[in-house]
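Case study.
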Amino acid sequence: MTNTAHIANAHHQWQVRVYWEDTDAGGIVFYANYLKFFERARTEWLRTLGLQQAHMQQALGGMFVVSDTSVRYHRPSRLDDALQIYTELVVCGKATLTLKQSAWLDTDLVSEARIRIGWVNSHTLKPTRLPSALLDTLVNAPRT
Amino acid sequence: MTNTAHIANAHHQWQVRVYWEDTDAGGIVFYANYLKFFERARTEWLRTLGLQQAHMQQALGGMFVVSDTSVRYHRPSRLDDALQIYTELVVCGKATLTLKQSAWLDTDLVSEARIRIGWVNSHTLKPTRLPSALLDTLVNAPRT
Amino acid sequence: MTNTAHIANAHHQWQVRVYWEDTDAGGIVFYANYLKFFERARTEWLRTLGLQQAHMQQALGGMFVVSDTSVRYHRPSRLDDALQIYTELVVCGKATLTLKQSAWLDTDLVSEARIRIGWVNSHTLKPTRLPSALLDTLVNAPRT
Amino acid sequence: MTNTAHIANAHHQWQVRVYWEDTDAGGIVFYANYLKFFERARTEWLRTLGLQQAHMQQALGGMFVVSDTSVRYHRPSRLDDALQIYTELVVCGKATLTLKQSAWLDTDLVSEARIRIGWVNSHTLKPTRLPSALLDTLVNAPRT
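After joint prediction, the assembly is written out as follows.
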């Protein structure tokens, strides 16, 4: 049913720098902000596949909407840290994607996430099938 | 030219509570977040005038866009503080509003702002005149 | 081992209003921001128990740190929506709490979360047992 | 009184990409977020001078705190835009800095800011003189 078997194992790596805006009064990165870091990394992963979300919204009349996020926070990160974000597409269905993502500080795992994303019509926000051109691009994404 | 003379002196008061999300690693509220507090207070001030921005966007095809912000930060605020936000319309022109806003912790002035806002067409984002019904509501806002 | 059996079933309800800052270019609330809404509601739930986190940090030398978040997004919410946030403590262990939270727009479930929180030393950020006074307060929280 | 005359004209350039988190339901970047972009650019400008704020807080017991921000918003920017942020130190006093910053989309000026920053003791948050080593670094910053 899903194209899991066909998915290229796309481990995308991307760096995020921690700024003041990301921290809280505990002296560490506010946990909700890792979802922003993971979002940025997914956007950059899509960009490496030639997919720009603003263009997709205009050209395809649809957009990705996050439907499920599970995040585990293993250790804190702090101002000025340079985090490496890894993104891997693990399931690519007809209408949803599932990605594994993780944030690392050198060799320490900071946090890891499982994110499920659906494709919806931009106007109605109703779930709909991924356009086939988009699906082809995702399924055939090269190993990196 | 402007309707300054006719403006009711609308000192609107509204409370904002400081949460973790608002603070940074300096242990205090991140300065950019006062713009969010002032925005929320303006939204609530408009709501007291019967103006809901989501409705306005649909009914009038336009929206407010901030064109100028000046903020002075006088003293820090911290987690759990309850700030009083005061909002006053000081200039109401044909296409722009200017508001004075301030944030207080008890009798201490925390920050104060001068915010200029224009009315734009929601689709083109071009500046345009305030719809007359909207202008009437603003100019005739009761003292509070 | 845990005090689950003793937990008062604390369904705390609290309202969050959606402002511009919470939305994104999809026209809906940015999914990561529900974690902020749930955080605010937990803070208010603690406040109803007489627990202020800024005081706790000073008096007890510790703070809560989120270790695990699972959020499901069922339907979008938009500018000006008034969301009801429900918070329920479902597990209270020696060093961690687990809460169920949900966001509702009238009778529609918007999103729901399971949040695990640990207690850490504020300076070392090392996990440590919940102070007994704090634990007593949580375990004996009245039904609401 | 100030060291204005001695300031190297440090036009620092740095790129910011617009992500979903930065936009609002108007379809454009939420105006308060330009303060975040300018903050990130100042942090990177300091980094080019060998100054890391987390280190400074530990080594010098002080930190920068923003005391004044004036921002003018000239035209909107949108999802996926790559903004160029320019940063220039225009006044370097004994205890405060003033910077001019601007955000450009290609040849279009998106927004421009004047930011005043003070140096404070990290614990008391009281304004204090810039440490001389820090002042020297700022005053002698090379043209870029």
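Observations recorded in class. Strands of chain D lie at 12-17, 62-73, 82-92, 96-105, 108-121. The CA atoms of residues 7 and 78 of chain D lie 35 Å apart. We will return to this complex in the next lecture.
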